Amino acid sequence: MRHLPRIALLVAFANSAVAAETALHTKLIAPAHTFRAGYPIRMKLLMTNTGEATAHFHEPQVSINGRIIVRDEHGQSVPYIGGSAQTVNPLVDIWPGETKVLDDFDLTACYYLRKPGHYTALFAGAEAWGPMGVDAGEDAEPADSSIPASDVFTFEVRDSPAGTADGDPVGRLLPLAQGAWALATAGRSRHDIQPGNTMAPGPGWPMTFEHNPTGIIADVALVHVWLMDQRSVPVEPDWRENPVGPSEYIGRIGRWHVYIAAQIEALKRWPTVNTDVRNALSHPPGHPGVRPSKQLVLAPDEILPANVDRQRSLRARVVLRVERVSPGEGSKYHWPAVRVLRELKNTTYQPFPNKLRVAHYGGDPGIPSGECTIYLEDYGNGTNWRLLDGRAETGVSHVADKP
What we know:
403 residues, five-stranded antiparallel sheet
């Protein structure tokens, strides 16, 4: 069978995609237009193909990553509290006349909607990915269609005792989410949660402050907050089951026993987080005195110093500026000792000691003499560390020999 030229495939796929796009329509629906504060707001996003041809599209992100635009009656954006997530987006078909449910979700799980008032919600749409695999001839994947924005759904949230019955901790903490900081929570957990890996699980409400000024996952700094119904008791840490690390108990605040675990990187960017969280939870939502005391405003290029390689740092949990103290010995791995000069990136929950040993493969040059930047991966439940891939080629950069 004759194979179409690559350009012909591109044109054919593009033309079919454009025709399909004009026949796709999305709509947000809900069982009502009036809801009570503190109760779920169930919604669905539907897409209908009104055309005569089958359309292809990649399943979109709908209720996550802020893809729904929600505004209050003053036109202000409603805070997104769903957190960030990576998803798999397979290519699927929608037949002529078919209607698909793209997502079925609770809007209150993603957006803070405790305040009474009138609101609008709109799905922002999703761009087409474009032709993929066109060099494969007749096996080329058909070009996908973009997904149009939905109509605007209007609704009202009315006052209800349920809106404040749980103390509304999200409303209390939201004023601390300034700049590139965002508050993420899925609501009170149905199951027991563990406030760090050194405390016993129990009923409570987990929350996370995320800071990501670059939009790159590897640059995220996290602060975990747990609001527990009861004070937890210490347990032996299990790094495999809970890699978050130990938490700090900051006391009972109102009805909650509050625990915090902040990554070292997060503490650099928000050194007053413990005090600020305690202050916020001590005041009702909207209190004018609730503001972060000291959050550093960092530009994207300030996240990584000049002596850090961007590509290596994206893979590393820890980046250190070090000076080698002694060469390593061993068989499969050698363990040279280094003196830590500066923590350049630390996504763990503990500071590094002044001296430590770092593994690399025995046949590899490893860490050179003098100063250098090393990129580390976990090699033993947060207690042992080795160079990325166990090699200097990927685990070492910016070498400065001693004069």
